Amino acid sequence: MVRVRLRVDPIKCKAHGMCGELFPERIRMDDWGYPVIDQRALPDDVLEHARRAIADCPRAALWVESVDEPGARVRPDDSD
Amino acid sequence: MSVSIDAGNPAHRLLPPRPVPEDLDAHLASFGPRPQPESNALLDALDASGLCGRGGADFPTGRKWRAVNEHTKRGGDAVVVANAAECEPASFKDRFLVTYRPHLVLDGLEHAAETVGARRVVIYTTKSHSDVEAALSAAIRERRRRDDSDRFIEVLVGPNRYVAGEETALVARVSGHLAKPKIVPPRPFQSGVDHLPTLVQNVETLAHAALIARFGAPWFRSVGTPRSPGTALLTVSGAVRTPGVLEATCDTTVGAIVDRAGGVDGQPATVLLGGYFGRWVAADRIWSKTIDAHSLQSVGVSLGTGVLVVATATTCGISETDRVLTFLASQTAGQCGPCHVGLPAIAETFHKVATGRARPAALDLLVRWSHDVRGRGACRHPDGAMLFLSSAMEVFAKDLRHHLKSGPCRYSGQRPLLPVPATEAGWW
Amino acid sequence: MWYATRASGYTALILLSASVVLGVLTSSRESRPEWPRFVVQSLHRNVSLLVGLFLVIHILTSIIDPFAKLTFLDAFVPFIASYRPLWLGLGVVGFELLIAITATSLVRHRLGWRTWRGVHLFAYASWPVGVIHGLGTGTDTKSLWALGLVAVCVGAVIAALVWRLAHAGPRFTALRFLGIAGSVASIGALILWMAVGPLEHGWAKAAGTPADLLARSGAGPTTAPVPVTHLAAGLNDPLIGTLVSSPTHATATLTDTRDRALQFVIVANADGSGTLTVTRSGGDVCQAPATIGNTSVTARCGGVLAAIQIVNQGNGAIGGTLTTQKATA
């Protein structure tokens, strides 16, 4: 099972704020509306929220990557 | 900035003994012809030498060249870009090196191109350094006339913006796009100019590599320290009598270096080391420390781009920081929210503190915000700026409280120590 | 069935307007505690899908219903329909834009934001196209409830646009001002167009409603119904009938397939002369001398020129096409 964490592309992100609403467990908004994402590995019970945040981001700026192999993107619809 | 090359030091390697630009003949007289070592041999020599990048990142050079080599070994092209941009306003070493010893830099560049199998070879400079462009073009023409190498070296001029010298921004510009940073991964050695594996190397590093190719790793390590072998170029400025570019072995103390720059005009109070992404540190903590990486780390600083600015007690560290912070905030690429929104907000708040128009809560706000923006940009611009800011808030803590309460101090209006260039509008 | 078409059409318009308003709200990044952004976005998506559903119903029912004689092809190729081609065609354009927008939105993550957005901006084109389509083709356009409905939809969308433009960041001031001015001006333009277009007498004909529909419905904007005793102009009807030949003359008896009460009797004499007799339900409409050509017969019936093309199908069976136009002289 791949350990993953949620990442945001800061260039694509335009502070729409959906992710913070959908995944407040791991995402909080800074004072300017941009997401601060907890970089720890995501436990299984919150993965669906992560996937929803990824799918609903208007700029498709979120993705999950493997903790052990940074840079290896895990497709948002992969099931573990 | 006056042309002052310290000719007294016997450890001269990179800088010529006299401030006279070396043409090809003089270069060959100094160093002999460029050898053509086998790639693996040169890579081994670089590894053994312990040479690390002099563009600020201090990354082991041998490892960097090997990484690109790995990608081209499987077939395919690579690109080598020499970074002569020197977008750090207080740094002059790269310009000096290119002006006085261009052929040493070009030798290093050719070694790199041969070792990684590069099809395209570029040396990158900025619009505001037209003398650099001229010196390079002249040197390249000389070499072509001499038919020393049939390799075509391209001189490419980019915008003079602080982030334009960042690796991925440079790669973007060489690829024909705007000079703005991109997220990593992939790093340039994996996918850089036109998606080819790209080696980006500072010109001082390339000059050292050229010497290692001629004289070997043991020679390189014969001076300096085990962690920081060889010599380094520094730009010494501030309250010193003869500011300029110096070359020093890495076991030289900060105090000794400042002495070679004519000594301090007054009593040293603080030192800015590394550039605008560097840190302020109390002079007495660093004066007897060598510029070896471990030694500097013990006081929480690093050599960075070799910028060393000495400030006395009559320098207002707060107004200097204020100006530089405002400059850094104006230099964002405008791509990443936390940086291009956060840095101006932070700079403005700090300015209010500096001019006595803020409430005490502003200090907490600065600390909180400076933690918030770190690591949240595509490049390290916000990180570097915040390192600079937090070191200022620590070293000038007393002055900060004074400014908060009463506004500018009696030294605030003095001639500024740290240069802040006029911002260029474009990204091309 | 035509009621189903009209109902689903107006429903689709309401939903599309709602979708545009929600879309504008989503992009504005406004949020309230009761209305988190992801809810607004979710609503926008779901409403848009409903628009698609009702559009499909709208199109299918319009094809199935024999009233406007629309074919499947008419739903996908704009401006070729026989019923109000221009205004119907606009509906086709709007429909196809919405197909593109929906399709790209479903695979948004694979396309990249720029491509997706480029297509999505056409939503700003598909909505006015839909509104104008509805006003131009709508049978109900003149009725109060329909006008009220359209006014509310247009008002809501324009209000949302103006609000969004006014609340945008400090950049692009000139563009925003133009956008607001343009949106408001377009309402004025719409009202003017309505006054001289769909709300005027004679619109159905001007819009391209086939004449037989005008005649039949009688509820067309012309105040007087077409008199039964005259032959209508603008007809283009298939005929079927029989041909009986004798040494001296030939008699063709034809019935209009679109208007089975209308009958034509052509008598062609050996000397080249002939007559055309037109009857409706047995009663005389007109009788006139006819010019007999090889396959065509022309005659003047009151103020109308009638031409009948005849195709001999063998065994005495014939087919033909009747075209009528206003006589000029």
Count of spatially separate domains of chain A: 1
Total strands of chain B: 9
Share of β-strand residues of chain A? 15-25%
* CA(first)-CA(last) distance of chain A: 6 Å
Number of helical elements of chain B = 18
Strand content of chain B: 5-15%
Residue stretches of chain A low in confidence (pLDDT < 50, at least 5 long) are 76-80
| Structure summary, number of beta strands of chain A | 5
Give me the Rg of chain A, rounded.
12 Å
N-to-C CA distance of chain B: 27 Å
Strand order of the largest sheet of chain A: 1-4-5
Q: What is the global morphology of chain A?
A: globular
Q: Looking at CATH, which topology of chain A would you report?
A: Alpha-Beta Plaits
Describe the structure in your own words.
The complex is a heterotrimer of chains A (80), B (428) and C (329). By secondary structure, chain A is α+β, with helices and mostly antiparallel strands. Chain A has a single domain, classed as Alpha-Beta Plaits (2-Layer Sandwich), CATH 3.30.70.20. Chain A is built from two helices and five strands, in the order βαββαββ. The longest helix of chain A has 10 residues. Chain A is globular, with a radius of gyration of 12 Å. The C terminus of chain A is likely disordered. In chain B, helix 13 runs antiparallel to helix 17 and helix 16 runs antiparallel to helix 17. Chain C has two domains: 211 residues; 91 residues, no CATH class. The chains are: A alpha+beta (80), B alpha/beta (428), C alpha+beta (329). Chains A and B meet through loops of A and helix 14 of B.
